[in-house]
Amino acid sequence: MSENVTAKDLPQNFSEAPAERGHKAESVSSSSSVPGRDKRIFGRKKSVHHLLGGGKSADVLLWKNKKISASVLTSATIIWILFEWLSYHFLTIVCFALVLGMLFQFIWTNTSGFLDRTSSNVPHLDLPEELFVEIAVSFGAEANRALHFLQDIACNGDLKQFLGAVVSLWAGAVISSWSNFITVLYVGFVAAHTLPILYEKYEDEVDTFAFNVFDQLCGHFQKLDSNVLSKIPRGGPLPEKKHE
What we know:
With 244 residues, this protein is mostly helical.
């Protein structure tokens, strides 16, 4: 999320609706025919492309250039097959890639020198240092944002948000236990390259369905809150000690 959204504002922004609850069915039918309605997930008012950063990465995720997006997804699939199905290790693949690169350059140099009688200059491969710096900075910024978001949930004293975050993390731990880290990473990579474009194509239907599900979950949670959570005793402030 590119906007600064705190943990306390998340459920409130999500539940915002332009119409009253009494005219919910009418508003859904009318808003589905109007693409620019305000009833969006998390109360957003910006396009999906802008939320994804608005740069080249957003173009890749939204398949603006189908060749580049397809090549990125195909490369990730090949890497996943090498590690998961063929059981290759990272060091093994790196060594094989270096051997193939050296063999290609060796054949190129000797063949060109044999045919032209002059040695050919082999182009050197140089990785830009700025690429690694940008990757490290982006990763650090996203990690800090996630940590701050979780700290806000833990420190604001809202039991509902705290339980929601704990359940979400527990669900992520259960899902990750079903497979190894590479498979989970690949599934997330594929989801990042498919879900945004599907959401942009079926935006109105997804938003309507998400709000209907959220309304049902809010109803069940209100029952749980009134019957269970509200009856949990909370400790009051400690009495001050009197100094004689």
